Structure formats: C-alpha cells, structure tokens
C-alpha cells in the first residue's frame, strides 16, 4: 500500500480539540470575569453577555462535533475478505498490524472484554456497523466504529529509530528525522536524572547520547511513543 497521510483528518480532529479547549478557557475566563465584576454596576450586563457567549460557543461546538461524525459514514454489514475489511464494497482501513495488535481502548464488539483491536473488529464481522472516517482512493480510513472513537483516520507506519539524539533550534532529531514530542511534563524520568521534568528537559538530558525511540512516522517526522523503552506520551 502506498504511504499516504490524510492531513485533513488531523486538522479536523485538532480543530475539535482546540475548540473544546477554547470552550474550557472561555468558561474559566467567564467565571473569573463574573466574580470580578459582581460587585460593580456593569457586573449584571457582563454576566448576561458571558452567559450568551457561552451558550453560543456550546452550540457551535455541538455543531462541529455532529458534523465530524457525518463527514463520511459507511453503514452496512462488516465483511472480511482475503485479509481486508469491507462495508458495502468499500475497503475499511482500521490501522496497521502494530495498532491492530494493541489492546483496544473501547469494547467495540460489546462482549464485555477489552481485547486487541483486531479481536474487537473480528467480533463485529457479519454484523451491521457504522464506520466514520476519511475516504481516500476508495479506502475509508476509520476514525469511529459505531460512533466510538478508534484513532486518527490516516495511514501510519510504526517505526523504530536508534541513533544519537541531536538538538537544533529547540527541536530534536535522530538521523535527520524530527521528533514530535508531547507538550508539558513527562510522566516518567526518561533521562534517569532522578527528577520528573518537562518533556523537552528530559530530552535535553539525552542530547548527544545514543537513544532508541519508536513511534508513528509522519512525512520526515516521527510522533514519539517510547524513548529507551519508556512510554513518552
Ligand atoms: Ca470486546
Ligand atoms: Ca528526568
């Protein structure tokens, strides 16, 4: 299969995340403003305006999310033919082998057990499903199964890299491949210096050293999942 990346999907999903964050921030700001202004004469007017804005944002957010689930949908019986999945003759791409062998985050086949993603999908063969995602060259890259989130709807290749970690202008590279790392604090002491730091500080502690990472290749970058065997998301 050709390497392809559906950037639009990522943008759409990020847009939802940004919108959700904006909504939370707006609500926090709104709450603060309301508190600050409750004692002066303008307080009442601002409170009404804030409530109106919040309701508007909420409606906008609802519309975005509803639309997202309706971008592309294929509804029908899930079939498995020669190692590929189909609904109404349209090939469904649920992810690569690595992803299909990870433990599922949701119980898609509703048998009460979180199995591998592959087992969950196999549990749905022959039943009626609704698959959402992005259609590219007659392949539907699934984002949702029956309205339940699966993954970013794109073709990703899982890769392992080993080499000396370099830092150039605040970005990190191994063999010229840029590392896409999570923002904020690391959950683990990746550089083994005895403290939990921000992810970039953990990486600074490893610059110049040989490291082993794995993650999802995306053009000439890699979305880092593990560093030296430690979960880094
Ligand atoms: Ca299950
Ligand atoms: Ca550390």
The fraction of residues assigned to DSSP E strands is 25-35%
Oligomeric state of this protein: single chain
- Rounded to the nearest angstrom, the distance between the terminal CA atoms is 28 Å
Averaged pLDDT = 84
Radius of gyration: 22 Å
Helix- and strand-based class? alpha+beta
Which range best describes the helical content: under 10%, 10-25%, 25-40%, 40-55%, 55-70% or over 70%? 25-40%
The largest β sheet comes out as: 7 strands, mixed
Overall, the morphology is flat
Query: How many strands in all?
Result: 13
Characterize the structure shown.
The structure is a single chain. With 233 residues, the protein is an alpha+beta fold. It folds into 3 domains: 7-69; 73-149, no CATH class; 158-231, OB fold (Dihydrolipoamide Acetyltransferase, E2P). The protein has 5 helices and 13 strands. It has helices at 7-37, 43-69, 97-100, 117-122, 199-204, and strands at residues 73-81, 84-87, 90-93, 128-136, 139-145, 148-149, 157-164, 166-168, 171-174, 177-180, 210-218, 221-227, 230-231. Strands 7, 8, 9, 10, 11, 12 and 13 form a 7-stranded mixed beta sheet that branches. Residues 1-20 and 26-35 have low confidence and may be disordered. One calcium ion is lined by residues 189, 191, 193, 195, 197, 202, 205.
């Amino acid at each position: 299969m050709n390497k392809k990346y559906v950037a639009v999907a990522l943008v759409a999903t990020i847009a939802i995340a940004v919108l959700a964050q904006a909504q939370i921030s707006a609500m926090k700001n709104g709450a603060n403003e309301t508190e600050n202004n409750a004692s002066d004469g303008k307080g009442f007017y601002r409170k009404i305006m804030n409530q109106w804005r919040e309701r508007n944002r909420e409606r906008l957010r609802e519309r975005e999310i509803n639309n997202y689930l309706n971008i592309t949908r294929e509804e029908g019986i899930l079939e498995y033919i020669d190692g590929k999945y189909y609904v109404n003759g349209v090939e469904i791409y649920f992810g690569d082998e690595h992803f299909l062998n990870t433990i599922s985050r949701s119980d898609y086949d509703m048998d009460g057990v979180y199995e591998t993603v592959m087992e969950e999908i196999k549990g749905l063969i022959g039943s009626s499903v609704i698959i959402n995602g992005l259609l590219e060259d007659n392949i539907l890259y699934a984002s949702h199964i029956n309205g339940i989130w699966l993954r970013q709807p794109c073709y990703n290749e899982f890769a392992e890299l080993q080499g000396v970690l370099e830092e150039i202008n605040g970005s990190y590279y191994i063999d010229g491949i840029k590392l896409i790392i999570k923002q904020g604090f690391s959950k683990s002491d990746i550089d083994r210096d005895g403290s939990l730091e921000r992810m970039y500080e953990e990486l600074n502690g490893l610059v110049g050293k040989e490291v082993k990472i794995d993650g999802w290749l995306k053009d000439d970058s890699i979305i880092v999942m593990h560093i030296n065997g430690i979960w880094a998301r």
